Amino acid sequence: MSHEKERAILDKFAGLRMLVVGDVMLDHYIWGDATRISPEAPVPVVHVFRDTYTAGGAANVALNLRGLGATVELAGCAGDDEPGRRLHSILQTDGVAFDAAWLAPSLPTILKTRVLVQKQQLCRIDREEKPAAYAEAAAARLAALVEAVGQADAVIISDYAKGMLGAELWEALLKAAHEKGCLLALDPKPRRRLAFSGPDLLTPNRSEALQLAGLESDPHDLFPAEEVCRLIWEKYRPKNLVITLGAEGMLLSREGRVEKTIPTVAQEVFDVSGAGDTVIATLTAALAAGADLETAAHLANVAAGVVVGKVGTVAVTLEELRETLEV
Questions:
Q1: pLDDT tens, 176-219?
Q2: Of all helices (H) and strands (E), which one includes residue 278?
Q3: What span, in angstroms and rounded, lies between the C-alpha atoms of 251 and 256?
């Protein structure tokens, strides 16, 4: 199978200037083994081998874009604390521009700690402040954020419902992006109920798509694709709608109509953490580089297949994408 069209799009990634806005966090992994149960409680005793750290949330979207070769700026609230400084260092090392002014002295960095035993996640421990604290910190940087939109070819809004994306910031981002004419992509959290209309790309998963459409569905029911796409179009008017359906692949829709479903390419799934970040990063970069929706979705599908075959939150690279396309 020829992939000349996809390869031509990949060649354009290096010329893209991308802005990612959203909830940033630090992902901490504790790797170990458990061979006995604690005498204190019926829980496993974990012998720790090592600790690793990586960028999570919107910061992982930024790392994926950088891995694809784009020039990337990240905007998101973190604390001027040890996790925040570690996150800043990770991003700097990987070439993502993340202004230290986003590190607020009074704000704790969102930290997700996962304990893994023989590559299986045992539990997750979250540390974070209430959403209002991150919204307040973001509001103080609004002018700088709007200015950054004017320098970008595309903007990705990565909402993890942690508070960064308040109503005022949403309105300012949407207005700036429309005035600049740059591509605006949104990975939504429907429970936040923020008003938006007309994004160039909307990428909910199955559950989020049902929420956006205002529908309830049993997990065992068939996904009501046509009704979901029609209702989302009527409410939010996305130019391109891509619904990720896990093992069932990706559903592509325009103007409320189902256009195509692309089957998943993942051969083995070890960890789905961060797969949605990889999808929106690849989709947006491809569309910004001039790809049609189907080509962009195919590239995103291949990229997602790469990252779910690894353990932990990881970013795809341009080399991995090229090599997988050649198989």
A1: 998 988 999 999 887 766 677 889 999 999 999 999 999 987 77
A2: helix 275-288
A3: 12
Q: Which amino acid is at 298?
A: H
Name the residue ranges covered by the structural domains of the chain.
Answer: 4-33+45-326
Say which CATH topology domain 4-33+45-326 has. UDP-N-acetylmuramoyl-L-alanine:D-glutamate ligase (3.40.1190)
In this structure, are strands 44-57 and 71-75 parallel, antiparallel, or unpaired?
unpaired
pLDDT digits (tens, 9 = 90+) for 246-277: 888 899 999 999 999 998 775 555 546 668 89
- 3-class state of residue 180 by DSSP: helix
- CB-based contact 298:285 (threshold 8 Å): no
DSSP at 45 = E
CA 139 to chain centre: 22
Dihedral (CA of 76, 79, 83, 85) sign:
positive
With b meaning 16 or more CB within 10 Å and e meaning fewer, what string describes 180-212?
bebbbbbbbbbebebebeebbbbbbbbebbbbb
| Catalytic residue set | 277
DSSP codes, 188-257 = --GGG-------SEE--BHHHHHHHHT----TTSPP-HHHHHHHHHHHH--SEEEEE-GGG-EEEEETTE
Token code pair at residue 195: 């008003």
Cα 65 to its chain centre, rounded Å, is 10
